[in-house]
Amino acid sequence: MTTEIKTSDSLRGVRYEIRGQLAQRAHEMERQGYEIISLNIGNPGLFGFRTPETMRMAMIENLPSSEAYCHQKGIFPAREAVVMQQQERNILNVTAEHVFIGNGVSELIDLTLRALLNRGDEVLIPSPDYPLWTASVTLNGGRAVHYPCPPQNRFEPDLEALERLITDRTRAIVIINPNNPTGAVYSRKTLEAMVALAERHNLVLFSDEIYDGMVYDDAEFFPIAPLVKNTLCGTFSGLSKVYRACGFRVGWVVFSGTNELAKDYLHGLDLLASLRLCSNVPGQWGVQTALGGYQSLNKLIRPGGRLYESRQAVIRGVEASEYLSLVAPRGSMYAFIGADTHKLPGFDDQEFAMELLETQHVLVAPGSSFNVDYRNYFRVTILPEAKIIDDVFQRMEKALKAYREKL
Fold first, then answer.
1. Which residues, 6 or more positions from 94, have their beta carbon under 8 angstroms from its beta carbon?
2. How large is the average pLDDT for residues 207-213?
3. Residue 192 — φ and ψ, nearest 5°?
4. Average pLDDT over the chain, rounded to an integer
5. Which tens digits make up the pLDDT trace of 164-182?
6. In this structure, are 127 and 201 located in the same domain?
7. Final residue of a domain: which of 258, 292, 326?
8. pLDDT tens digits for 297-348?
9. Gap between the Cα atoms of 160 and 270, Å rounded
10. What pLDDT, on the 0 to 100 scale, is given for residue 6?
11. How far apart are the first and last CA of the chain?
12. 22: closest CA among 357, 303, 278?
């Protein structure tokens, strides 16, 4: 007699629909010969972006030194480069011992939460969120509590609602800035208020800044670490987005603020880092060159640059639509687009995304994938060239008109 093998109970409530049913259907269609425009994931290499040559050369030249395990926290030149970046931001109480290199920020999110949480502990996470944060809290026995970042507030946090959600089980606040999926870039005033809240309630701040510097027009990115004095702050960043090196799998978290009071926690994180031995060594050799060298991103985010012009194409496409609305993204590589529920009553993001895929061969990520309680938004990446985005919005409008006719 055979017994069905079931999944672990720990996976209940864990979602990552960005690579879920819709993406699986898109792969099936590609195998059948259809050309799919995939806007569901921010993966620069798939859209022709190259990692800067100096980073590639740094990795190649150091391959002979990359065949052994390195220190569990990462190679010293990479960690020291992160320290120097922090010092340039006037954060002076950080050393290489406070930096952990991981296989992308994704791994570090899991490790930092695993070292912190006891069963039932709560973590405040923005809604909409990057769903890996919610999934990692759940997988590590915690409870994800979502604080609203409503469209009417340009997707910045509702600070009063955030404070009301704090309980005696709350351990940390997660900040994603510049934001994925909305493209919001938080003001200094908002960040100062969030820091004050965390310090008042003795909460750890986890700031996901993987898109730091990827901002448009008059938007200004403020790293949060310089604002934090009286609690622990973990700042996450890496090579995948700003430096277009997703496949290198190199991210880091650097701790600042009350490091002296967090020795036990940091020791636990060091233990977890040791258990996985080390992160990808060849890719780490690109960190020093990336942080200390010419910042090629700047050319891409200014008028005439590819990311800037693709963002403009998204804005134009929404403005020309009969059914769509948009808070123009001020940062990152995404746009979070709303459908008008007065013209499209009963609009369902999952249903529309599937119809858009089946009929127009365009793959988007439904807004409900990002832990919101509304179903009339979807996310697209702005990575394709502007002419492709123009074509996408023409296809979207056809799909929206067909969707309306079915209502």
1. 83, 86, 87, 254, 255, 256, 259
2. 96
3. -60, -40
4. 95
5. 999 999 999 999 999 999 9
6. yes
7. 292
8. 999 999 999 999 999 999 999 999 999 999 999 999 999 999 999 999 999 9
9. 35
10. 80
11. 49
12. 357
Is residue 3 in a domain? no
Same domain assignment for residues 314 and 396:
yes
Residue 395 lies in a domain: yes
Six token digits for residue 47: 């859209």
Is there a single domain that holds both residue 246 and residue 360? Answer: no
Torsion of CA 141, 374, 151, 361, to 10 degrees: 100
Peptide bond preceding 178: is omega within 30 degrees of 0, i.e. cis? yes
- Helix (H) or strand (E) segment spanning residue 22: helix 21-31
Asked if residues 382 and 334 have their Cβ atoms less than 8 Å apart, the reply is: yes
Q: What is the pLDDT of residues 33-89, one digit of tens each?
A: 999 999 999 999 999 999 999 999 999 999 999 999 999 999 999 999 999 999 999
Question: CATH number, domain at 132?
Answer: 3.40.640.10
Burial class (CB in 10 A: 0-12, 13-18, 19+), 355: middle
Give me the amino acid identity at 401.
K
Question: How many distinct structural domains can be found in the chain?
Answer: 2
Is the CA virtual torsion 172, 177, 182, 187 positive or negative? positive
Last residue of a domain, one of 242, 266, 292: 292
Q: Are 387 and 279 members of one domain?
A: no
> Does residue 2 form part of some domain?
no
Tokens of 92: 């002076």
The pTM for the full model equals: 0.94
